[in-house]
Amino acid sequence: MIELELWLLRMLGLAVLVLLAGYQQCVSATTGSLAPPEFLQHNGSLYAVCKMRPSTFLPDGLPKVYGHALFKQDHPQGKLKMLIRFSGFPTESDPVPRALHIHQYGDLSRGCDSTGGHYNPHDVHHPNHPGDFGNFIPEQGKISTMIESDATLFGPLSVFGRAVVIHEQVDDLGRGGDAGSLLHGNAGRRLGCCIIGTSSPNLWNTQQKQLARRLRSK
Ligand SMILES: [Cu+2]
Ligand SMILES: [Zn+2]
């Protein structure tokens, strides 16, 4: 009799474990499998930072770009917001628009040249890559703006660990009429780059306030 009770108890315990495992799988199917643990720590948002530095071996006479790109995304299906603050461009009267992209590899072993081509998870032409941010015109040597992007921090297509690259020239946005145009927009040399890494909300929160203040005072 006691043996039967013990057996029943054991079976009950097993059933509870199976149920719990099923529940956990359910939860991770909706959020966990798409998100690193920070998702729960930061109210369901993910944050990222990329600290821009001039490419090593950058030829003399080319601008040395410093600054950062910050990222925030509120949920896996939400738009990625990106706060850009770069400096070091020449303060010319007719500034050159500069192309900005996400490149495939977070490999800076040969400066920005080892970051590969454009991050292209869907095998499509430029400028339809998720990290094709277009052109930015510096004002007084600086780019300071907030944009939205189709890139994501969540799931298998996450851009964590990939590179942001700022270019010497304008992106022709696929209208150049040659093979390079559909590959990379003929944006020229890579002035600076950085690797997208995980971040706390702190930088985003302070920088967003500063940007709002700058825009108000314009
Ligand atoms: Cu690029
Ligand atoms: Zn592209």
TrEMBL record:
As given in the record, the signal peptide range reads: 1-29
Q: Superoxide dismutase copper/zinc binding domain: from which residue to which, for each copy?
A: 65-196
Q: Name one Pfam family in it.
A: Sod_Cu
The regions listed as transmembrane in this protein's record are none
- Cellular location of this protein? Golgi apparatus, trans-Golgi network; Secreted, Extracellular space
Q: What is its EC number?
A: 1.15.1.1
Keyword entries, A-Z? Antioxidant, Copper, Disulfide bond, Glycoprotein, Golgi apparatus, Metal-binding, Oxidoreductase, Secreted, Signal, Zinc
- Cofactor binding notes: Binds 1 copper ion per subunit. Binds 1 zinc ion per subunit.
Catalytically driven reaction(s): 2 superoxide + 2 H(+) = H2O2 + O2
Protein name per UniProt: Superoxide dismutase [Cu-Zn]
Q: Which organism is it from?
A: Salarias fasciatus (Jewelled blenny)
Chain's gene name: LOC115390071
